[in-house]
Design a protein that fits this description.
single chain, 322 residues, alpha+beta, Fructose-1,6-Bisphosphatase, Chain A, domain 1, 2 domains, globular
């Protein structure tokens, strides 16, 4: 195959410690991809009977993917610390490591039983404390502007890795013949004008008036702006944003009326996805400010998010800030 493999591609980026971490992550996600593709044939469907730090039922596959990633990232020797949706506290994996990672091991896990797209989201920062000791909160609670690498794996009709190290966005597809990721989507740019909006419109009565007015705008007939726009909502952040990244669109998970926070997590969902979309030419906001400028204060902090193509982002923020 006359395409660069993922290890060859990231080695060329120059930081060998970062390369080791990212390659270890990719190897772990190959295992997860295999599990997802065969989920109906093994005893990994359903709940474990326990709840995570957010009070949500833990799926068996949530728990298993979390363990797989900690094992592979520990083996990288360069990943100092780990925080995820499934762990209440931060974990030190390699005291001498240079980087920390925040992960949603299995985004959209409620879709497992119906074979809809799910994924793994990650965000890598360089630790601020000196290597040699345990990682600390300050190593993780960094703004998105300090991100060293971020991206997601999507397990759908094919398994893909979408990643940025701050020099644009590239996509790699897992070749099932040799189990290697190869560059398939170089230099991804999000269309500036999107025609898709992704939101749980069934909750519209819970949203503020400005957002409801934007949804009405999306559904109006207007030839000059190619409306009505198309509503597409998978119920998986990875699935919805991946489609919009390729085709153009906006994904919205707002705070409900009278609330200031949304449901999605800042560190391992909103920041990495915002980093990817901005690197691809799009925009991301919590409705008031740029996501990557928000200072995290808690490992599991929640955040509202508006993310997507420039034209829809500008129009949505115009409505919600009236």
């Amino acid at each position: 195959m006359n395409r660069p493999s993922f290890p060859d591609f990231v080695v060329a980026d120059g930081d060998l410690d970062l390369t080791k971490l990212l390659v270890a992550l990719a190897e772990g996600c190959k295992v997860i991809s295999h599990l997802v593709n065969n989920v109906g044939l093994s005893d990994i469907i359903g709940h474990t009977g326990s709840s995570n730090v957010h009070g949500e039922d833990v799926q068996k596959l949530d728990d298993l993917t979390n363990k797989i990633l900690t094992d592979y990232l520990t083996a990288s020797e360069t990943c100092a610390g780990f925080v995820s949706e499934e762990n209440e506290h931060i974990l030190t994996l390699n005291a001498g490591g240079k980087f920390t990672i925040a992960v949603d091991p299995l985004d959209g896990s409620s879709n497992i039983d119906v074979a809809a797209p799910i994924g793994t989201i990650f965000c890598v920062h360089e630790r601020l404390t000196a290597p040699g000791g345990d990682v600390e909160g300050v190593d993780f609670l960094q703004k998105g502007t300090a991100t060293r690498a971020a991206g997601y794996f999507i397990y759908g009709s094919s398994t893909m890795l979408i990643i940025s190290t701050g020099r644009g966005v590239n996509g790699f597809t897992l070749n099932t013949a040799d189990n290697e990721f190869y560059l398939s989507h170089p230099n991804i740019m999000m269309p500036e004008k999107g025609k898709i909006y992704s939101i749980n419109q069934g909750n519209a009565q819970k949203y503020d008036d400005g957002l409801r007015n934007f949804l009405n705008y999306c559904g109006e007939v207007d030839k000059d702006t190619s409306r009505p726009y198309s509503l597409r909502y998978i119920g998986s952040m990875v699935g919805d944003i991946h489609r919009n990244l390729i085709k153009g669109g906006i994904f919205i998970y707002p705070a409900n009326k009278g609330e200031t926070k949304g449901k999605l997590r800042l560190l391992y969902e909103c920041i990495p996805m915002s980093f990817i979309v901005e690197q691809a030419g799009g925009k991301a906001s919590d409705g008031k400010m740029r996501i990557l400028e928000i200072q995290p204060t808690d490992f599991h902090e929640r955040c509202a998010i508006f993310i997507g193509s420039k034209n829809l982002m500008d129009k949505a923020l115009e409505f919600v800030n009236q």
